[in-house]
Give the backbone structure.
Amino acid sequence: MKAGELTPRKAREFVARWPVYRGDGDNPLWLEPAELKALQESNLRRQLQLAADFSPYYREVFRREGVDPGRIRTLEDLERVPVTSKEAYLENPLSFLLVIEPPDALDATYEITYTSGTTTGAPAPFFNSAYDMYNITLQMRRMAEICRMNPEDTVLNLFPYAGLPHVGFYRTVHFASAVGMKLVNAMVGRDAPGFPLHRSMDEALALAQSHRASVLAGVGRYVRRFLVRASQTGADLSSLRLVMALGDAVPEGVREEMRALLAKGDADEVFVNNGYVLTECQGPFVECCEFGGNHNSAPNLYHLEILDPETMRPLPEGEVGMLAVTHLDRRGTVLLRYLVGDMAAVESGTCPHCGRSGQRLVIRMGSTYAARAERVIRVGGKLVNPEAVKSQLAGVKGMVEYQLVVEKEDPGNLFSPDRLIIRLSVAGRMRQDLEKEVVDKVSEATGITPLIQFVQSPEIYDPTLVLKATRFLDRR
Ligand SMILES: [Zn+2]
């Protein structure tokens, strides 16, 4: 279902149809925004007190920085807590684990997951208590509701069964179980020596067919390869209606490709859901409809802020900046204002598509929700992801070569404003038409109106000099 086809009424009708969702009277996503905020703030106050009492890391930070947690009453007051860097966490992950004295039955450590793909190498443990696991399982059921999975679905779990517990693999078990769906774990991945456990992609495809899977869940790029392979081998995936392509950015072109691979004639279109995953929130933020925003499915557990990368001050709704996560109701690892290292934009209030409350990541950079901070550049006051601009330009007809250039309007003056230039070489199309299309696409993706320069291809890409075209030049 695409944006525009889903309405709050349809979303509520769906919930009313399935007892597993209809009976969830405590679902915070269906509270009015003001009620949700009151719940979040009450949770926040309790979480801060727990951090002050039992978190070795935050106890020390509060003391050193003179933070009085009792004075932090609202989400806006959070600014009084210093941000937490990834480095601080990786340096001593255990110091973020609450040591609750005396513990109650749900404080026992139940599960350890690990932060993924850090630049420093070693993965850091992230602890879930039993209390956290129950909350996460509810979060997963509400996530499934947003994507309109139902108890009659059959899920094929394409996340790797790996040497470190993969959040995706286990959360798929949780959401399938919580909704009461049939679940087939493909157990893809690589065998460790002496442990012949894993299935190949073709074996996973056979499972998808024999069980008539209606939902696929996996890492974006793996799911794409899976669908390519299905198409090559003529596998019958006609029962499929929802593709959860998670973790990786899955821009518009890739979704169209996936749908083309699954071409089903007149049947309903497959919903390709590109959820954003962060270990710190233990499960995906998902779309209620394609490109409709990535819902935080547990606003009672997690609060998001978008911060200016230079000042670390919160930015207004909808602006792109550094994503920071604050835990509101956890008992294992607890993080406050934790910088995950991604750039994103967030909106709150009521979702215009499904009517749920809470925060949603929204698309401000091309057709994807977030980008690694180190890949994002600043042009004037705006943050731009060159990859997003490139993906916007890749499909423009008549364009032979292109190049993005960022430079000072007055190159001799350090304080001169920045400008974005797009250099194009064209064949078989009117320059004015192409110019308009490119200006529209780039300003939509970045909020910046670029200057267009028409050049001959060798000025961008001279095959006698270099092997690859230079698509992006920063001349500042
Ligand atoms: Zn929605």
